[in-house]
Amino acid sequence: MRSNYHEELSSVLDRLHEMAGLVEVAMVEASSSLLHPDLDQAERVISSDARLDELHEELEFKCLSLLALQAPVAGELRTIVSTIRVVFELARMGDLSAHVAKIARLRYPDHAVVSDLEPNFKRMAEVCIEMIDLAAASLRDRDAKSALRMAQIDTEMDTLRSEHFDVILAGGWQGTTEQAVDAALLGRYFERFADHAVAVARRVIYIITGDTPEGIDWPNA
Amino acid sequence: MRSNYHEELSSVLDRLHEMAGLVEVAMVEASSSLLHPDLDQAERVISSDARLDELHEELEFKCLSLLALQAPVAGELRTIVSTIRVVFELARMGDLSAHVAKIARLRYPDHAVVSDLEPNFKRMAEVCIEMIDLAAASLRDRDAKSALRMAQIDTEMDTLRSEHFDVILAGGWQGTTEQAVDAALLGRYFERFADHAVAVARRVIYIITGDTPEGIDWPNA
């Protein structure tokens, strides 16, 4: 019975790793379609999101079956509930990637991001991709090290968000109102993606180590 | 053992009802501080959010204990996992109310919402408050009827969001870029609040009836 539990959990973690990989692809393609307007690529991100929603349902059900069939004990319970939470967070990260792609599609063939903000958004996207990549690495290697590095990276997101507000709201804004609104919403989507990534990291560390790391200044996610 | 489970679950549902009540107060005060600039009120919403985060932790732990001690069977399992999800969604709704209050605080003593958009935001706030009120009523009465009415109301949110984008992005926008950006972000917060309310309603209906209603065109939340 116990060995069954560990095998089943391990197969769920493999599927979580797969799901994190799909989220990474979604964010890579969404930000690319945004920064180098590409309608097909944007459409691909939007239509692929259904696959993540399916995985969400499937893995939530799998975790419930594990709870029902294996009657896990206290620590195992928290592991499975954490897993359900990670599945949920990853699905939201997929939704946010699709939101980015929808703005790219809406403005195509124009650039949704004005050239003044391009370096800022390019870096925001890189940080998001790096974060989901660290989460995926922790799931693949069953090693918390990668996920632990995430708290550091996330602080850069806050700086990037302040910087782009400075550009939009400074007196000298050269873009249109529409471009300012797009930038504010896109910034929010990237920021939320990062928040969810941090939440994933915390739970993945718990799943792998059975412990919540102290002494790390995790942002509130 | 079984009667214990039902008593424990009932006490968790009472606490969920209490939590929903606090979220309702947060949204009532946040939108009031936004539409009638009031610094104290905005501060109160922001500082009260910590109480919702505490309740989140406390109720999640309570649900885990219920899982661990009562070894619930299949349907009960899904009920408890749904409860954990409702707790999470309510906490997010509290965060979003605090986000609204933060914009009110940032612009105080000015109005963050330009007068052209006031009726739109007033109605958005009313819809949000009505939605959380329906969820709370279902939890209080242990009756799905109120929660079932939510799908209808939520469609009005989409219309309201389109309407305010029409105002912001139409050629004749009279406000500043800052006001447009505030409006876009505020609209997003109200919209997300409503999305979470719909997610709460779906789970509350399940918790109360043991069934997910078919034939209702729930928005994707």
TrEMBL record, chains A, B:
GO terms for cellular component: cytoplasm. Its main location: cytoplasm. It is found in: Cytoplasm. GO terms for biological process: intracellular phosphate ion homeostasis; negative regulation of phosphate metabolic process; phosphate ion transport. InterPro entries: PhoU, PhoU-like_sf, PhoU_dom. Keywords: Cytoplasm, Phosphate transport, Transport. The keyword Transport applies. Residues 16-103, 122-204 form the PhoU domain. Belongs to the PhoU family. NCBIfam families: phoU_full (TIGR02135). Plays a role in the regulation of phosphate uptake. Homodimer. This is Phosphate-specific transport system accessory protein PhoU.
